[in-house]
Design brief:
Elements lengths: L8 H14 L12 H8 L3 H13 L3 E4 L3 E4 L3 E4 L6 H7 L4 E12 L2 H7 L6 E11 L2 E11 L6 H4 L7 H9 L3 E11 L3 H7 L7 E10 L4 E10 L3 E4 L16
Parallel strand pairs: 3-10
Antiparallel strand pairs: 1-2, 4-5, 5-6, 6-9, 7-8, 8-9
Length: about 250
């Protein structure tokens, strides 16, 4: 495709590369043409090619590795409007969801978790810790707590490396999760999180803390998750005061 003079050349090259990524010409993890290759292909200076690659990286579609080049690293994007399970969310994006179960056991509730789940201190809770994967790549570590009295035999009867927790709660226990209160923050990962999520030493994670409620407004699940900062992002829509807006109680 020939460039024209109506738009800055580096913007045009950025747009062409972005279009090729979105069309699957360059897959996630694949190396993009170098500055030299782009300058030769489009008849521009290496500075112009460098600006195009930098602009593309700012959009979150690529990562640059010194001495190695620029690689496609399109992030999984979650819009903060609806309460969905990880399985449903990834499936909706055309990615195959899977999980590795790290811990599946009963654990007595400490004061903090008991307060969030409106449970008694020392009450039996289900603890389910999983590595969540999309397309075979680790995206998050998720620690979920649920009251065992609400879902007896949950761990004995189900394999959560294969099954969706939310689907099991609804179909087997009649628990319908309808909204959640969630806090999100950025932080640096702990050593084991870097290893499990395959994160570099300087890459942050998105830390999520969520309490999920049923249709009677009773807390069902307390979950803490950390998401790979280079593979996952979240966004929401903000409108002028008085205009229709996103509802912060997720449904």
């Amino acid at each position: 495709m020939m460039l024209n003079g109506a738009t800055p050349l580096y913007v045009q090259i950025r747009d062409l590369l972005q279009q090729q990524i979105e069309q699957g010409v360059f897959a996630t993890g694949e190396r993009l043409p170098s500055e030299r290759e782009l300058s030769q292909a489009y008849g521009v200076s290496r500075m112009t090619a460098r600006q195009a690659l930098q602009l593309l990286q700012q959009s979150g579609l690529t990562q640059s590795h010194v001495g190695k080049g620029t690689y496609v690293s399109r992030k999984i994007d979650q819009e903060l409007r609806e309460l969905t399970s990880f399985t449903q969310e990834m499936s909706n994006k055309g990615l195959h969801p899977s999980s590795h179960v790290l811990v599946a056991e009963l654990q007595p509730a400490d004061e903090g978790v008991a307060e969030r789940l409106q449970a008694g201190i020392g009450e039996d809770l289900v603890l389910l810790v999983r590595v969540r994967l999309a397309g075979g790549k680790p995206i998050a570590i998720e620690r979920a707590h649920l009251r065992h009295a609400s879902c007896p035999n949950l761990l004995e009867a189900h394999d959560f490396a294969q099954e969706s927790l939310y689907q099991v709660l609804q179909t087997q226990y009649g628990i319908h999760l309808v909204w959640a209160s969630q806090r999100i923050a950025a932080r640096m990962p702990e050593t084991y999180e870097r290893a499990v999520l395959e994160i570099g030493a300087q890459v942050p994670v998105l830390s999520l803390e969520r309490v999920t409620y049923d249709e009677t407004d009773h807390p069902v699940e307390y979950v803490r998750s950390c998401y790979h900062g280079e593979r996952y992002q979240m966004h929401t829509v903000l409108r002028e005061l008085g205009q229709p807006s996103v509802e912060w109680r997720y449904r």
